[in-house]
């Protein structure tokens, strides 16, 4: 369905609008199907939106959140997305936040754990929020990773896979568990949150290139759901 761009004056406006769209998606899902299931990225940009969403009125006992990807670290590690998501949704009483990793972050067991947990969820997410790195990775679909080609294969029936970024990012030098592209595209709403002109330029270059192995973020436009790009300076 293409890409829809939402430009905002600042991160506050971006966060407010994204939170409103996620809230509407949750309400519609609960009213229609009895629960809402979201896949949410880590990173600095989307967390103000998560906190704004958590402050809104909703039957949070009917909402399930799963990370779009996770670093293979113990859950109490500062680099854990799970820990940050739990903090962001601390006001959302009754919410369920699933983990893609085992308590100790062991990569092999975490990969099996993620596939097992995802199998218990509906086949289609109600909304997904993703971010993007300067190298055009999204979720943990890193260019150069040995597992990337399989993770981007739309015929891949697996919901999650281990990813070993190459090179490892110095700020987070860990293996990852990520949702595969085929799982990311099974959603009713897809949101990409980015800030700064440099990231906008990366996204434009990725979309123009069409080379998803070099620019994995371009692949998220291949699904049936429109990609809502939320950008602020």
Describe this structure in words.
- The protein has 233 residues and is an alpha/beta fold.
- Helix content is 31%, strand content 19%.
- It has helices spanning 11-33, 47-54, 81-88, 107-118, 148-152, 181-184, 197-209; strands spanning 3-7, 36-40, 63-67, 69-71, 96-97, 127-130, 160-163, 176-179, 190-195, 227-232.
- The protein has a 7-stranded parallel beta sheet with strand order 1-10-9-6-2-3-5, sandwiched between helices. A 3-stranded antiparallel beta sheet has the order 4-8-7.
- Helix 2 links the parallel strand 2 (36-40) and strand 3.
- The longest helix has 23 residues, at 11-33.
- The protein is globular, with a radius of gyration of 16 Å.
What strand line-up does the widest sheet have? 1-10-9-6-2-3-5
Q: What is the N-to-C order of secondary-structure elements (H for helix, E for strand)?
A: EHEHEEHEHEHEEHEHE
| Termini gap | 26 Å
Content-based structural category: alpha/beta
Main β sheet profile = 7 strands, parallel
């Amino acid at each position: 369905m293409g890409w829809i761009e939402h430009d905002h004056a600042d991160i506050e406006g971006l966060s407010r609008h994204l939170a409103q769209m996620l809230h509407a998606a949750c309400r519609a899902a609960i009213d229609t199907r009895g629960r809402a299931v979201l896949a949410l990225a880590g990173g600095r940009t989307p967390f103000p939106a998560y906190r704004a969403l958590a402050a809104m009125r909703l039957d949070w006992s009917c909402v399930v959140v799963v990370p779009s990807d996770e670093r293979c670290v113990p859950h109490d590690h500062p680099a854990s997305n799970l820990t940050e998501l739990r903090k962001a949704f601390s006001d959302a009483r009754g919410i369920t936040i699933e983990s893609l990793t085992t308590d100790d972050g062991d990569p092999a067991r975490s990969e099996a754990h993620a596939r097992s947990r995802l199998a218990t969820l509906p086949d289609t997410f109600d909304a997904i929020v993703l971010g993007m790195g300067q190298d055009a990775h999204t979720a943990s679909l890193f260019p150069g990773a040995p597992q990337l080609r399989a993770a981007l294969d739309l015929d891949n029936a697996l919901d999650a896979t281990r990813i070993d970024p190459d090179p490892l990012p110095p700020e987070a030098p860990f293996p990852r568990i990520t949702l595969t592209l085929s799982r990311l595209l099974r959603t009713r709403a897809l949101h990409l949150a980015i800030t700064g002109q440099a990231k906008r330029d990366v996204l434009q270059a990725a979309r123009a290139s069409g080379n998803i192995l070099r620019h994995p973020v371009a692949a998220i436009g291949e699904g049936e759901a429109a990609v809502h790009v939320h950008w602020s300076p």
